[in-house]
Amino acid sequence: LKRIVIIGAGQGGFQAAASLRQEGFAGEIVLIGDEPELPYQRPPLSKTYMKTGDATILPLRPESFYDAQGITLRMGSRVEAIDRAVQRVMVDDEPVAYDHLILATGTRNLRPPLPGIEHCLDLRSLSDAKALRAALSGASSVGVIGGGFIGLEFAAVARAAGLEVSVAEAAPRLMARAVSAQMSERFAEKHRALGTMLRLADPVAEISAKGLTLASGKSIACDFALLSAGVVPNTELAAEAGLSIENGIKVDTQLLTEDPAISALGDCASFPDPFSGRLVRLESVQAATDHARHIAKRLIKGAQAPYRAVPWFWSDQADWKLQIAGLAAPEDRAEELPDGTMLRLDGERVTAVETVNNAKVHMRSRKAMGQGTPLMLEDFAALAG
Ligand code: FAD
After folding, report:
1. Are residues 261 and 339 in the same domain?
2. pLDDT tens figures, 250-267
3. Are residues 136 and 29 in the same domain?
4. Does the predicted interface ipTM exceed a cut of 0.95?
5. Do residues 274 and 362 both lie within one domain?
6. Residue limits of the Reductase C-terminal domain (predicted)?
7. How far apart are CA 170 and CA 33, in angstroms?
8. Is 141 helix (H, G, I), strand (E, B) or coil?
9. How far is the CA of 106 from the centre of ligand 1 (A)?
10. b/e per residue, 144-166, with b = 16+ CB within 10 A?
11. What's the CA gap between 50 and 74, in Å, rounded?
12. Is the pLDDT at 385 greater than 80, yes or no?
């Protein structure tokens, strides 16, 4: 391989470039991103950055890193098309050839076609976060559409800044896709105790400059609204190039698309979960980073064992750090341990471990799940003790 091109210079695209060098790749690496800033981390956008406005904590590496590593960084550049037949991409009307292509295009905010949706702000990029901070500073109330991780992290920051905060969630519980019903309830109590108003099972029907109107007819007055109701994967480039899409760019256990010259990773990729075999698409720093490392190793060292890194995730809401090790299916049952740890179970197999402010159990769970054999309920007591 002479030249590897990476589309998307976020968490995973950056990591792929860095890992290719770490694995000893001596050829050309071109990292193309359509945002103007140096590659940066998104998690602080709804946490420390939202609180402090300190953007110096965001870049994944300083500019000198890319020079020193010989990584050609093309920021503010958008890839418009992939021509698989001749192995090249079009960047701002200029063709760039590749020997291998890595798709790391991430996601964008879902914008449902609701009346007045144009009044809502987003929280996905640094430029979104800047606009949101500006709105925060002049307001006394905010409506948050969507009770997932990002909406709730933002709600906690806004509440701490003294705003009146209302969260409207269409589902009957918070973070419903990701955690057990018991954990959702614990967080609902926490946010209520902070003084946030929660409206569950009541989708937003309309937005105006004055506030939100819910399906039930209730209205929420607010100075501005954040839309945090999920994302859509950026799969259009891949789809137009004829690659299969199944809730994301479909890849195999080596994170390869059907085209042996194209890999995909992170938020935009659907990959087979090693335990259940079902295709999953994860929106986490862990997936983007571990996918990138796996792809870099395969490209440089050749065939290797199927991808099977243990998924993990965190979310900071006020003084609570939620951590999840593993990956539960929605139907997995939940069992609470005396120390508050919540286990998700498929039969006797522990599929995920949810903890709050308990880094020790989280780290031990991740380690135990990474041993190569399934973690069973009967083994868990020894681990937590
Ligand atoms: P991204 O980092 O999104 O990068 C994709 C990049 O590709 C973007 O810059 C995009 O503009 C660019 N791009 C797309 N199409 C093109 C094109 N055609 N040409 C050029 N460039 C293109 N995860 C956690 O694990 N824990 C957290 O606490 C957490 N908090 C978060 C808080 C916020 C506010 C947000 C937004 C995300 C958070 N995440 C968190 C999720 C995490 O940031 C993502 O999972 C991760 O960034 C995914 O990496 P990625 O490389 O797949 O995509």
Report:
1. no
2. 999 999 999 999 999 999
3. no
4. yes
5. no
6. 312-380
7. 33
8. strand
9. 5
10. bbbbbbbbbbbbbbbbeeebbbb
11. 27
12. no
The residue from 171, 194, 227 where one domain ends is: 227
C-beta separation of 67 from 228 below 8 A: no
**Alpha carbons 16 and 248: distance in angstroms, whole number:** 19
How far apart CA 232 and CA 220 sit, in angstroms, is 27
| Cβ neighbours of residue 2 closer than 8 Å, sequence gap 6 or more | 27, 28, 99
- How far is it, in rounded angstroms, from Cα 58 to Cα 185? 32
The last residue of one of the domains, among 181, 204, 227, is 227
- Both 83 and 118 in one domain: the answer is no
Tokens of 104: 């790391």
Alpha helices, H only, 23-79 = 48-52, 63-68
Instruction: Please give the structure tokens belonging to residue 384.
Output: 């937590």
Q: Rounded to 5, what percent of the chain is helix, strand, coil?
A: 30, 30, 40
Give the chain's domain count. Answer: 3
Query: Is 123 near ligand 1, meaning CB less than 6 Å away?
Result: yes
> In the predicted model, what is the mean pLDDT of residues 273-283?
92
Q: Does the pTM exceed 0.80?
A: yes
Q: Which of 5, 6, 7, 11 to mutate to test ligand 1, by most ligand atoms within 8 A of the CB atom?
A: 11
Neighbour count for residue 76 (Cβ, 10 Å): 11
